[in-house]
Sequence to fold (166 residues):
Amino acid sequence: MKKIITLLLLLMAMRAFPQSQEVLDKIESAKIALITQRLDLTPEQAEKFWPIYREYSERQRAIHQDFQDLKRNYRPNSATEEESKALIDKGLEIKEQMINLDKVYSERMLSVINNRQLLRLREAENDFRQELMRRLREQRDRPRDQLRDRPLNDEIRQQRQQQRGN
Fold:
Protein backbone atom coordinates (compact mmCIF):
# COMPACT_ATOMS: atom_id res chain seq x y z
CA MET A 1 0.00 0.00 0.00
CA LYS A 2 2.79 2.39 0.94
CA LYS A 3 4.55 1.55 -2.31
CA ILE A 4 1.47 2.42 -4.34
CA ILE A 5 0.98 5.72 -2.51
CA THR A 6 4.64 6.57 -3.01
CA LEU A 7 4.41 5.81 -6.71
CA LEU A 8 1.30 7.93 -7.06
CA LEU A 9 3.02 10.79 -5.27
CA LEU A 10 6.02 10.38 -7.53
CA LEU A 11 3.88 10.50 -10.65
CA MET A 12 2.06 13.58 -9.38
CA ALA A 13 5.37 15.22 -8.53
CA MET A 14 6.71 14.41 -11.98
CA ARG A 15 3.66 16.14 -13.46
CA ALA A 16 4.16 19.13 -11.18
CA PHE A 17 7.74 19.49 -12.39
CA PRO A 18 7.71 18.85 -16.14
CA GLN A 19 10.93 17.17 -17.10
CA SER A 20 12.78 17.05 -20.38
CA GLN A 21 13.41 13.65 -21.94
CA GLU A 22 17.08 14.12 -21.06
CA VAL A 23 16.24 14.46 -17.34
CA LEU A 24 13.91 11.46 -17.46
CA ASP A 25 16.64 9.42 -19.17
CA LYS A 26 19.12 10.44 -16.45
CA ILE A 27 16.65 9.36 -13.77
CA GLU A 28 16.10 6.01 -15.48
CA SER A 29 19.86 5.51 -15.91
CA ALA A 30 20.47 6.23 -12.23
CA LYS A 31 17.75 3.75 -11.27
CA ILE A 32 19.23 1.05 -13.51
CA ALA A 33 22.71 1.69 -12.12
CA LEU A 34 21.46 1.45 -8.54
CA ILE A 35 19.53 -1.76 -9.17
CA THR A 36 22.45 -3.33 -11.06
CA GLN A 37 24.83 -2.47 -8.23
CA ARG A 38 22.49 -3.65 -5.46
CA LEU A 39 21.51 -6.94 -7.12
CA ASP A 40 25.06 -7.82 -8.17
CA LEU A 41 23.71 -9.52 -11.27
CA THR A 42 25.86 -11.92 -13.25
CA PRO A 43 26.00 -11.17 -16.99
CA GLU A 44 23.72 -14.15 -17.61
CA GLN A 45 21.22 -12.95 -15.01
CA ALA A 46 21.31 -9.38 -16.35
CA GLU A 47 20.57 -10.57 -19.89
CA LYS A 48 17.41 -12.33 -18.69
CA PHE A 49 16.43 -9.98 -15.86
CA TRP A 50 16.31 -6.58 -17.60
CA PRO A 51 13.72 -7.46 -20.27
CA ILE A 52 11.43 -8.84 -17.54
CA TYR A 53 11.98 -5.80 -15.31
CA ARG A 54 11.37 -3.33 -18.16
CA GLU A 55 8.13 -5.07 -19.07
CA TYR A 56 7.09 -5.03 -15.40
CA SER A 57 7.87 -1.31 -15.10
CA GLU A 58 5.98 -0.47 -18.28
CA ARG A 59 2.90 -2.36 -17.07
CA GLN A 60 3.09 -0.58 -13.69
CA ARG A 61 3.27 2.79 -15.43
CA ALA A 62 0.30 1.95 -17.64
CA ILE A 63 -1.83 0.99 -14.64
CA HIS A 64 -0.89 4.18 -12.80
CA GLN A 65 -1.53 6.28 -15.88
CA ASP A 66 -5.05 4.87 -16.18
CA PHE A 67 -5.80 5.92 -12.61
CA GLN A 68 -4.23 9.34 -13.11
CA ASP A 69 -6.41 9.90 -16.16
CA LEU A 70 -9.51 9.09 -14.11
CA LYS A 71 -8.44 11.34 -11.24
CA ARG A 72 -7.69 14.20 -13.61
CA ASN A 73 -11.30 14.15 -14.83
CA TYR A 74 -12.77 13.91 -11.32
CA ARG A 75 -14.17 17.14 -9.89
CA PRO A 76 -14.75 16.69 -6.14
CA ASN A 77 -16.96 19.75 -5.75
CA SER A 78 -19.36 18.79 -8.52
CA ALA A 79 -19.08 14.97 -8.56
CA THR A 80 -22.11 12.87 -7.79
CA GLU A 81 -22.01 10.11 -5.20
CA GLU A 82 -21.97 7.59 -8.05
CA GLU A 83 -18.95 9.24 -9.67
CA SER A 84 -17.14 9.33 -6.33
CA LYS A 85 -17.93 5.67 -5.66
CA ALA A 86 -16.77 4.74 -9.17
CA LEU A 87 -13.41 6.43 -8.52
CA ILE A 88 -13.05 4.62 -5.18
CA ASP A 89 -13.91 1.30 -6.82
CA LYS A 90 -11.43 1.94 -9.62
CA GLY A 91 -8.74 2.78 -7.05
CA LEU A 92 -9.34 -0.53 -5.31
CA GLU A 93 -9.31 -2.35 -8.63
CA ILE A 94 -5.98 -0.75 -9.48
CA LYS A 95 -4.52 -1.86 -6.16
CA GLU A 96 -5.62 -5.41 -6.94
CA GLN A 97 -4.08 -5.14 -10.40
CA MET A 98 -0.80 -3.98 -8.85
CA ILE A 99 -0.77 -6.87 -6.37
CA ASN A 100 -1.45 -9.36 -9.16
CA LEU A 101 1.23 -7.74 -11.31
CA ASP A 102 3.72 -8.01 -8.43
CA LYS A 103 2.88 -11.69 -7.97
CA VAL A 104 3.24 -12.56 -11.65
CA TYR A 105 6.46 -10.62 -12.18
CA SER A 106 8.00 -11.72 -8.87
CA GLU A 107 7.60 -15.31 -10.05
CA ARG A 108 9.08 -14.46 -13.44
CA MET A 109 12.02 -12.63 -11.85
CA LEU A 110 12.60 -15.51 -9.45
CA SER A 111 13.22 -17.73 -12.44
CA VAL A 112 16.29 -15.55 -13.08
CA ILE A 113 17.36 -14.13 -9.70
CA ASN A 114 17.22 -15.55 -6.19
CA ASN A 115 14.97 -14.54 -3.29
CA ARG A 116 17.66 -12.40 -1.68
CA GLN A 117 18.16 -10.47 -4.92
CA LEU A 118 14.41 -9.96 -5.27
CA LEU A 119 14.28 -8.50 -1.76
CA ARG A 120 17.24 -6.26 -2.60
CA LEU A 121 15.41 -5.15 -5.74
CA ARG A 122 12.41 -4.03 -3.69
CA GLU A 123 14.70 -2.24 -1.25
CA ALA A 124 16.59 -0.53 -4.08
CA GLU A 125 13.33 0.60 -5.71
CA ASN A 126 12.11 2.04 -2.41
CA ASP A 127 15.43 3.76 -1.71
CA PHE A 128 15.48 5.21 -5.20
CA ARG A 129 11.92 6.50 -4.91
CA GLN A 130 12.63 8.10 -1.54
CA GLU A 131 15.74 9.80 -2.85
CA LEU A 132 13.95 10.99 -5.97
CA MET A 133 11.12 12.42 -3.88
CA ARG A 134 13.67 14.15 -1.64
CA ARG A 135 15.34 15.62 -4.72
CA LEU A 136 12.02 16.78 -6.16
CA ARG A 137 11.13 18.48 -2.86
CA GLU A 138 14.58 20.07 -2.78
CA GLN A 139 14.17 21.26 -6.35
CA ARG A 140 10.78 22.75 -5.52
CA ASP A 141 11.98 24.46 -2.33
CA ARG A 142 15.34 25.84 -3.44
CA PRO A 143 16.32 28.38 -6.06
CA ARG A 144 17.67 26.72 -9.20
CA ASP A 145 21.23 28.02 -8.83
CA GLN A 146 21.57 26.39 -5.40
CA LEU A 147 20.70 22.85 -6.50
CA ARG A 148 23.37 20.21 -6.34
CA ASP A 149 24.01 18.03 -9.38
CA ARG A 150 25.26 14.76 -7.91
CA PRO A 151 24.26 11.39 -9.30
CA LEU A 152 21.32 9.93 -7.39
CA ASN A 153 22.86 6.50 -6.95
CA ASP A 154 25.99 7.93 -5.26
CA GLU A 155 23.86 9.71 -2.67
CA ILE A 156 21.74 6.65 -2.05
CA ARG A 157 24.83 4.46 -1.66
CA GLN A 158 26.36 6.90 0.83
CA GLN A 159 23.16 7.10 2.85
CA ARG A 160 22.80 3.31 2.98
CA GLN A 161 26.43 2.89 4.06
CA GLN A 162 25.92 5.44 6.85
CA GLN A 163 22.78 3.64 7.99
CA ARG A 164 24.64 0.33 8.04
CA GLY A 165 27.55 1.90 9.90
CA ASN A 166 30.16 1.28 7.17
Confidence is low (pLDDT under 50) at residues 1-9.
